[in-house]
Fold this sequence. Notes:
The complex is a heterotrimer. Chain A is mainly alpha-helical.
Amino acid sequence: MHIHISTQDGVPIYLQIVRQIRHQVASGILAPGRELPSIRDLAEKLLVNPNTVARAYRELETAGLVEKRRTSGTYVAEGPSPLARREKLRVLSERVDGLLAEASQMQVPLEDLVDLLHQRARALAKKPSLQNPEDHAS
Amino acid sequence: MNQHILEIHDLKRSYGKKVALDGVSLSVPAGGVFGLLGGNGAGKTTVLRHTLGLLAAQSGSVRVFGLDPVADPVGTLARIGYLSENRDLPDWMRIHQLISYSQAFYPNWDPDYAESLRNLFELDPKAFVRSLSRGQRARAGLLVALAHRPDLLILDEPSSGLDPVVRRDILGAIIRTIADEGRTVLFSSHLLDEVERVADRIAILHQGRIQLCARMDQVLSGHSRVQLRFSSAVSHFPPAGIWIHSEGSGHDWSLVAEAGIENIRAEVARLQAEILSVDPMNLDDIFVARTAGKPLAAGVRA
Amino acid sequence: MNPTSLDPSPWIIARVLLADMFHRSWIILTLGFVGALSLPVLILGALRAKGALIVEDPAMILIHFTFAQIMGMVFGASVLHAAGAPSRLFTLPLTNRTILLIQMVPATLLVIGQTMVSIWIQNVLFKLHWPLLGNALAFGMIFATFQSFMTLFQKTALMLPTLGGALALESLWVKSRHGPIFSLPTHYWTTVSPLDWMVFATVLALCYAIGMHGIARARCGNEIQTRLLDYLSNAISNFFGKKPMVFQNAVQAQSWYEWNLKGLVFPIIVLMVVPTTAVLWLFTDNTINDLVEALRLEGWMMSAAAMIGGIIMGNMGLSDASMAMSPFLGTKPLATVPWSRLLLATAFRSLVWGVLIWVAVYLLVLGGRELAGASHMPEPFVWWHMPGRILAAWTAMTFGLCISLTGNLLHLKILGGLYCGWLVTVMLVGSLTPAWFSELFTISTLSGCGMVLFSLTLWAWGSALRRRMVEGRHAILAGMVVTALVAMAGWQWARGATPPGATRIHHLLLVSGVLSLAVFPFAAAPLALASNRAR
């Protein structure tokens, strides 16, 4: 699992972890049932405070994206729970908002943008997998 | 966990006429990482030296584990691991001598842990301390500070002047230390990136006073940069109320607010100005806004 | 490219650097000057007070020669300290030659000037007719040799033998100016012949060449090749350093630390002084009784070495310049009282080694004297001289230790300043007032000093008792020890070795003050350590 932490833009670190795991779950990089690294391991890997990782995991758990199993670890939730679905849409709408704002700034009409979306979807379908999404949601 | 590992109350210190600490009060709760921020000469090292009992309080009080570190150095120091700013290890010792020597002072010393750290840090037991590079010296100091699994780990400017690999070791050590239940880390730094990564709580020290002391997430979410446009030109806008920093001239001003968005809206409406943008701030910007001396008003500059 | 073109204005830089040197080091230079002058003036003053100062006595030539050497060494050390290492100038835009000249010329001139002024002061104070020029130039030359070898060999193992050889040759030459080499000096070096000037010039030119070579190499970071010696010293330290160490407790570990770092200083000083004495004796006078005498005197002089050893042992800081306790030591969980006791134990251990070396040599010489069949001892054997020397060394060592243990350089400076001030006053009073007054003045100030020392000891014990660093029974024991010592000293006087009656009370005050210092450290060391630890 790859997570990139940046301290440049003022986004709290726990939020950066939450967002990136959301993306990875939503985009299928993290498959349902997959185990997430333990809080301590992830903290040491990212060099962030373990409490921060714990907080991120708690938020993800409340959102229904991951589940804690007794005595083992934290896993990506099985099946498309309604909560997870809502989460996916929420993540996507954030991105769409950004896209729309940028398009209007470049004065690209909405119809052209929709066309572009279809076109890109066809092109991507030919490739075997999605590329690793980087978080630029903010 | 309401217990405080370290409690400093109204601590004052001056060296001759120079005031180093001017009434510092600070509480560090047990567990977690406490970051002490400040520019060069802000008084960070002076605070830490009081904590270690190396300086006696001229006025005010210092309690570590509820004890006075000056009156009871053994009771406090045996539970503290310390990495000093200068890494002043004795040059004439070999690594294995440094380890045996340090071991004698701490009943809780864990020889296996010390050995595993020595391997991890790639320290040659036969090497003299004087022959170590800066990074290796910091690692040796870290080993000695960690191997007795101290309840309180104090690091004074742990990564200044070190390469990224050694800095990773030090941050990793901090994280491992608090991942063990109940341990506390107190460290001073001016490298805000690492503070933001590892600290639960921070205090900003400036000119011998605490400017800000809060949980990390509250600090980040509590400050915003607001771009304003006044309806009529303003030549002078001193920070006051929710505004802690201001710069700009004429119609356009950039302000730093310590308040929620509702308060900001209300205040801006009162000023009869228009909000251009409200952006989150990173720790760097907050630090600068908090510690940059008296902001130079545009009217004066022009 | 011509390197001198990089030299913006060597004269201005040299002037700034020299001004800086005097600004930084005027205290140490003044202390060095007065300190160098103190021993000759005190001894000559004592001789005059006894009526033994006879200007025409041939023994005065030896005294003159010896004084010049002592003054050269003491002041030379302070000049070396003031001049500092040449490496601090390496990054400045100066040519090698300018650096060398800045380092050597003013320092050499200072040494020459100091020798001349000091001899002149002695001439004026004691109405002597000692020649100024010869010895002054000779010490300038010796000092320049010392400095150039330091520049070339930089504290490597090669320095000691080479410098030793060069200095021995020069000393022999200076000795030859005062008469045949293997005998007592027979005459003063009154005129400096053209040949002598040529010798000076040649040696100084050699020093210049050696210094230039040293700076040229040191400036580009080339280490001198001492591969064999490095290998040997590494092998030795590997042999000793490999032993796995296990310490049972913190006191043991800290004792190891103190002894390894500082304990050997005093024994090494004694080890160095003893053979030096033997060599000096070889070149002046070969009668065994004089060697016995010299070693006996050295037994008393051990106190001075012990004081230096104690000052070094009490330094818990990172260097000679910053004696405040280093955080590394300050954060060791070891209580102040056991720590101060282990420091005193280390000092005692150091003292025992130094005394043993001296006693061994002394006994060896005495044995040799028996074998040589020498008839009478120059001075009858007195039983309390040996324990007296040890007690004096202990007192001096632990007093120095307690002063530097406070970690406050100011205390040492005050002590040195008081000593110098007292000396200058005694000198002035001695030359301006009648003999009876100057003697009264000296003994009064000394007895006043004794009272101060006694009060200092009382204060230390009172404070330590109040802070529970010592117990009541310790204080009672200490009081008994001091009473016994003073009683013994009084008993010695009662048996005849008494100064005139009028000053007996003065002597009692002085002696009880000095003797009380024997128990001073037991209370003062924990106080000093505590104040150094938490400033």
